Amino acid sequence: MKTEDGRAEDERVNWLSSIPFFLMHFVPLLALVTGVTWGSVVLCIALYVVRMFFITAGYHRYFAHRSYKLGRGMQFVMALGGTLAAQKGVLWWAGHHRDHHLYADQPEDIHSPRKGFWWSHVGWFLSDKYKSTPTDRITDFSIYPELRWLDKYCLVPPALLAILILAIGGWSALFIGFFLSTILLYHGVFTINSLSHVFGRRRFATTDTSRNNWFLALITLGEGWHNNHHHYRSSANQGFYWWEYDVSFYVLKILSVVGLVRGIRKPPVEVLVKNRIEKGVFDFGMFEARFAQGMRALEAAKARGGVYYEKKLRKLERLVARAKASAGEMSRHSQIVQEMRRHLHVKQVA
Ligand SMILES: [Zn+2]
Ligand SMILES: [Zn+2]
After folding, report:
1. What residue numbers bound the domain in which 128 lies?
2. How many Å apart are CA 24 and CA 37, to the nearest integer?
3. Separation of 102 CA from ligand 1 center, angstroms?
4. Per-residue pLDDT, 295
5. How close is the Cα of 12 to the center of ligand 2, in Å?
6. DSSP per-residue codes, 120-161
7. Does a structural domain hold residue 99?
8. Which of residues 273, 295, 314 is at a domain's end?
9. 10 Å Cβ neighbour count for 156?
10. 343 CA to centre of ligand 1 in angstroms
11. What is the pTM for the complete model shown?
């Protein structure tokens, strides 16, 4: 059973358990009382950038997509760094993210903007439906007891960090340095699930609505090249060309020079030229999304009804059915749909 905006009925925010999340957004205002020090502003920026690196390079590119290799010690450091962002546990995050790629913008997608902006941005994160760690999706990492522990007690590291910051830097450091940066970090990371499936340009025909967006790449250290990422998710770099800045990747490269990171995966040349929209490849992802939008508009017009519109609506319905049939015929032969079928039916880790 689906709601009007495409969400299943159990895809609902748990308002009660989400109270701390919402209250947290007001905590930085307490700095109006304590005052703001320059030190706390610097700490805010530093904690945003450093933790963004651990989320994008660690939680996302390593744990969800295995786009490079780490030793067991560094693997733990990456997981711990990401856990400090208070965006739930590493196994939870990476496991659910794999599902996003498996079903991107399909009804099973946990946070498609086709289910509404609010839902894709934060609603799914606050919902009971996706509360537990999808262990079957992340069996490759859940074999490590230290990662299972971190995943289970994921609030302990950020809580300890907050206490440490308060003890050393005082209230301003806590309110601005810790809380403000944590909130900015939430929304910075969340834009990749919401805005980068809505605003930006598409280079590759994919079965979803992902975009490349320079601004989102700037605030997320390179994650904004999201259409590149959906096109080839096993790559450690998401900026495919020199002008597509990707700070997380630059840091990974530096870490590889000193031997802490190994086996960095990059897109092969044939991947870079495959499914380019500019070369006329049928963009199935956008077609499907726009078609669904058109159908919703048609349903809304029908619901409004009235004798005057009925004839026109029937004609429009016939046209829509014909367009759907010919697009279906075309897509059956297109390479991209073949790929989509393979992706949906073969459970693929990264
Ligand atoms: Zn996506
Ligand atoms: Zn991904």
Report:
1. 19-273
2. 20
3. 10
4. 76
5. 23
6. IIIIGGGBSTT-S--GGG-TTTTT-HHHHHHHHTTTHHHHHH
7. yes
8. 273
9. 12
10. 15
11. 0.86
